[in-house]
Amino acid sequence: MKSEFSRPWTARYAPGVPHEIAVPEGSLYDLLESAAARHRNGVALEFFGAETTYGRLGADVLRIAEGLRRLGVTAGDRVALVLPNCPQHIAAFYAVLRLGAIVVEHNPLYTDRELRHQFEDHGAKVAVVWDKVVPQVQRLPKDLGLEGIVSVDLTRALPAGKRLALKLPLPAARRARSALTPSEILAGPHPIHRWEGLLASPPLDQGHPRPFSGDTAVIQYTSGTTGTPKGAVLTHQNLLANAAQGRAWVPGLVEGQETVYAVLPMFHAYGLTLCLTFAMSIGARLVLFPRFDVDLVLQAVRKSPPTFLPAVPPIYDRLAAAAEERGVDLSSIRFAISGAMNLPPETVARWEKATGGYLVEGYGLTETSPVALGNPIGPTRRPGSVGVPFPNTDIRVVDPDRPDVERPPGEAGELLIRGPQVFSGYWQKPEETEAVLLEGGWFRTGDIVSVDAGSYVSIVDRIKELIITGGFNVAPTEVEDTLRAYGPVTDAAVVGLPRPGGGEDVVAAVVLADGAQLDEESLRKRCREGLAAYKVPRRIFAVDELPRSLIGKVLRREVRTRLLNSKTSTPTGRQAS
């Protein structure tokens, strides 16, 4: 993609990084098929020590694809994946894409309400579900169009020794078994099919039509610029382009020799690209973790030392500290890319001392597949900034109220992005799409940035008021609605307050009914019934009233400022209970 704009930032690229790349054609399935042909006997996946070769993965994908076809999945159908990181997740992802169908990723920790909203929106025909959460999916109404559930037992992917250990009549084994799989799966309105049944299918006919570059590959839910979750439509080419940009950005990668740790959830755009597609594109060994656990990661380091670790700042801090305490060598990790929240310089210093490799910060959004900017992996990096645009990527800084008017160099403004990784719009939401996709393919990020004389971009503020906690987006409106549904709460404002080491805590200011007392634990318990754990406020303050604009809109920024300025009291001076 040639640009009519100059790209001065390319002078900051690390040696060996091309200023322009050829955007791949074809589909994401082609990416896996090619890797399987090049590295048939190489290890593609490792899960608690169990290994799957590229050849085996490729064969499994074709069998699962045929199994899904026999369940009625055709091109354009949506297939929901409600899975943690596991080998079945990878196989299901590529099998759906091989059919020309559309993957819809879901957090398996979502509540019934959160899942229902998304299923109502995308109308998936089939859901591939961790058996632990099958009961939740079974509670979805029959009229949503879901025709079947494929139940996945994670323990089937474990090494034989670990599977046997789970059956031992010991308390530890029972706890581990309970965490991984349910005691039984109850019948419900949606037919249940076992993953092993699909895996027993013959391979999909090679003549089955393949998807095209411009076809939709994934619907990834994001809160975007409002509090209402929307499905970002990502095409095969969007995701292929971002994987190729990622490969180009990391000079020194060795085809077929890298080991990538998937500690990021693959139902998140960041984990999906940097683990699920990027790793496959270079024939890497992908070590899968259902959740981040310091002990599990350090155990894996001894068996399969990682070379590339995408993560978030708290993970780097915890791993570096634990490795130093236990004498675990992390020097195999040459490359680490941090995202989702600001990367403190002290984290960079500690990590690079522990590994001898680079830790750099990147920037992106679900709508950009997700990575659009990054710090160079080399001496030209600039800690504290989010770096410079990727190859084939243009940026502009504009007046947020008049996005056709560019801000002068050095002056803060809204960041616009254009590139092959920019999404095609929001699923079935033309008005929301029109609001963020401007003429010429420019995407409005909603983030206020400044660009220094060296072309490095720094985030100043967010127009959108999403809270980023633990690498996940939290929409304040959703949490506020949950708080208001609790009798004693008459009004609420939810904001993010900085936490030590980076990221934010979800914090709420609530107005109580006359005579009511704040019971934080009771209120948090009510929130946990309808919200994922990371969305539940860590702190709750009682206030007399919330600041509002002339039209009555709650001024969350003012709430945030007051809370930041308050030490032992709430914004209005009342003591928090």
TrEMBL record:
Domain AMP-binding enzyme C-terminal: 478-553
Top-rank taxon, per record: Bacteria
Gene3D superfamilies to which the protein is assigned, alphabetical: 3.30.300.30, N-terminal domain of ligase-like
GO molecular function, one term: ligase activity, forming carbon-sulfur bonds
UniProt keyword annotations, A-Z: Ligase
Protein's UniProt name: Long-chain fatty acid--CoA ligase
Keyword Thylakoid: no
Domain called AMP-dependent synthetase/ligase: residue spans: 33-427
Pfam family, one: AMP-binding
InterPro entries registered for this protein in UniProt: AMP-bd_C, AMP-bd_C_sf, AMP-binding_CS, AMP-dep_synth/lig_dom, ANL_N_sf, ATP-dep_AMP-bd_enzyme
Organism: Arthrobacter crusticola
